Amino acid sequence: MPHGLIPRLLLTTCLALPITASAEIKPGEPQELRDLHYGEALFQLYQEAYFPAIVRLLSARKQGLMQNYADEPELLLGGLYLAYGMPDTAENLFNRVLKTSATPKIQNKAWLQLGKSRYRRGEDPAAAKALSQIGAEQPIDAKDEKQHLEGLIALKRNKPTDAVESLTEISGDSEWSLYGDFNRALALLQSEQSGTALEILKTIGDGHNEQDNEEIKAIRDRANLTRGYLLLEAEQPQPAKDSLQKVRLKGSSSNQALLGLGWASLQQGKEQQALAPWQLLADRNPSDPAVLEAKLAIPYVLAQLKAEQQSLDAYQNAITTYDQSLGSVDQIIQQINQGGFPDSLMVENQEDKQQLHTLLPFLLTGNRFQERFQDYRDLRELEKNLQEWQTKITAYLTMLDNQQQTYQEQLPRVEAFLRGDKLKQLEQQHAELDAHYNVAVSEEEPAFILATGEEKRLIERLQRIDTLISQSASPEQFQVQKEIAQLMEGILIWRTVTEHPTRVWNLKKQMKALTQNIESVKVQQTELAASTEQAENRFGDLSTRIDSLQEKIPELLEQVTALRRQQAKNLQEMALARLEQRKTLVNNYLIQARFGVASLLDISTDRGVQQQ
Prior knowledge:
The two termini are about 30 Å apart. The chain is elongated, with a radius of gyration of 44 Å. By secondary structure, the chain is mainly alpha-helical. About 30% of the residues are buried. It contains 24 helices and no strands.
């Protein structure tokens, strides 16, 4: 078995694609929130709930809200479209912003987003042209992102010199610097400047920091892995081992690193040392080709060490693993052909899906499958959302009918109010108070004009007493009572006269309050009249809109369902193709394992013949 084959294959895999940041949307540094609706959309964005964020922005835009941010919400909406897998819609929006915005800041942001959109669609020349339109005045982070994107485009267009030039201009303290350094190393490799590339990869791999997140750690692992295999290709096994040993055992690159460590030891002629990492690797998930390769490499090395029985046992173990792997692949192919794929990928811990989930890492490898799978999940969520709205819209129609019924029940009261019955009553009260007030302020001796009800009843009683005394046969008998009555009348007159100014002021206050009530009723009448006039139109508009949605939602649901089914078919074809590739790979390993067994048996037979 040519032991240089696997390093070359894995090195090709490591260097096939440059790396880029996972985040697609960068709304910028936190700033003062000037609009609640924009803030709500940002909240959804930070939760990675792209669809609700899009809904919030579209709703606010339709209502004419978010005026405080100019075109910023439009750029954010375009970024959300990109994240949601709608590059065409995003590009149309960015082009519209470029036509309407006059500020260089917004135009630069729009050109950058447009470049990202075109890059995602694979339109590299158009993406480069969009990025070239960006002016010099832009934030450092945006400039670094632009340089990184230009470097990626140059790499894809096989222009390593241009890529190095762009990636070198990224700031050292930028969040893009690590991505730029790694991709610059790839560009230097394409330019056959392996020495400089190895130094850059070493710097990345040795720069471990406690504050590194999982993504940064994965980049450092990948740098060490790539450097290790490059050194293996250059037949420098010890430096290669030094790099590969820095890869985390639980990271995504650990399997390839363990495999490379074995090959490095083999290059040094240390067969026994090569077994240790391979035996550790062989106990891992056999969905990884590196594990399958280790299963085959172990008996190969054991044979080199003349441990023929152990080699034979290891070959038999590898054959068993390969047979089981082929059987699992055949069962998965059967499951896929029976339907339910790719929904089965989204269900965890089902016994009947155990084999499928065992091969998940293999199926999900590659950006193309992952993007298509994410598109499928988005379509599935849209389909579910439309199904929910199909139920909700009927409830909204019922609610509208109930509101119309309530409106009709309240309409007579509204019409009575609009006829002005209450207003006439208030105006009549005001007129009476006004007349009373004019009399009160015009009399020189007001006496009982503003007397209270109780005072008026006492005056009437005193007057009846005086009349009774005058009409009696001998008024002199009631002289004392008459004097008491006169005294009480004098007290009443004195009180009404002394309190008259206060009572006039209170009367004026009542008239003012009544005037305010009249004005308030007039305003209410005006507003209610306008609302009543609009009510019928509003009910009609809502009814028309609901009816339209009742017709549109089934059409959209049918379209989304058709797209989801087509996407499921595409994923099924991709998965079947990947599984056929898997079968070919495993069959090749199986043939080599059986050939190894045959070789060992031939050696054993020849030795027996010689002994005879």
